[in-house]
Amino acid sequence: MTDYAIYDVFTGTALAGNPLAVVFDADAIDEARMQAIANEFNLAETVFVLTPDNPAHTARVRIFTPARELPFAGHPTVGVAIALAERRLGDQVPDSGVDMVTMLEEQIGQVRCAVRISRKGPGFAEFDLPRLSRRIEVEIEPADIGAALGLDPQDIGFENHHVSLWSAGIPFVMVPVHDMAAAAKAACVAAEWDRVAPMGDGMLADAYVYCRGGVNHTAAFHARMFAPGIGIGEDPATGSAAAALSGAIHHFDGMLDGNHALVIEQGVEMGRPSLIHMHVDCAEGRVRHVRIGGEAVKIAEGRLLV
């Protein structure tokens, strides 16, 4: 028997954001059973917590969608960092809150997370990108991509942003659209996406539709993510996509040297609004460091009997 918890991630409000299942003490669960459990939960991702290879680290984690394992993902990283901190502290959180640093071993490599736990509100975690976003040069036909997403050619592109492929470990076709009305039109046709989507890092790329602005006044960008190839029709918050977006923003917006703090909203069209916090540090014309963060709130806990 193994304890588990459900967290809503990239939100401080229960029943919003992106739900995540966290299975603790999972060393005795083999890979096939992990995949079956993730399929049973049927959430965008389920993360399994194991004993770290390095005793100085907090935990080794494995991340599964209902269809397959991922080397890295943002909302599981934020959610499991907060879940482990809350499980460790229990009722011993002072009124002033606690700041902690956790080191997670993921398939992509070590991921450092800064975590703040408070009695008065949801936890917040922010991780350093283990791999910076890079552009993958492939031929992409914007009209085909648009058709697979139910978008007209005139919906696609704003300013000098155009369709391109980026990856910070998970590949995404970045699809800029004129405004939120165009973003609201997007509806991925899975069979058509499988036909036109490019490959990146050995995987079929997912779709990330974005525009400037947002419903929330703090948002710099509004986004939607579709990943039918891994069993996710639409995702309410995608940290790995925000990570990939950092490279596209730097490239197309010509970010100046310095620190850029941005908020990306997602999940609005699904009724699960999410806010992803991103810091991009630039120097000598290049992105040097990116941090992705957000809140998470526990909404359920229980015990696996299998």
Automatic annotation (TrEMBL):
Name the record gives this protein: PhzF family phenazine biosynthesis protein
TM stretches of this protein: none
InterPro entries named in the record: Phenazine_PhzF-like
Pfam families: PhzC-PhzF (PF02567)
Database matches in Gene3D superfamilies: Diaminopimelate Epimerase, Chain A, domain 1
Domain of life: Bacteria
SUPFAM superfamilies, per database record: Diaminopimelate epimerase-like (SSF54506)
Similarity comment text for this entry: Belongs to the PhzF family.
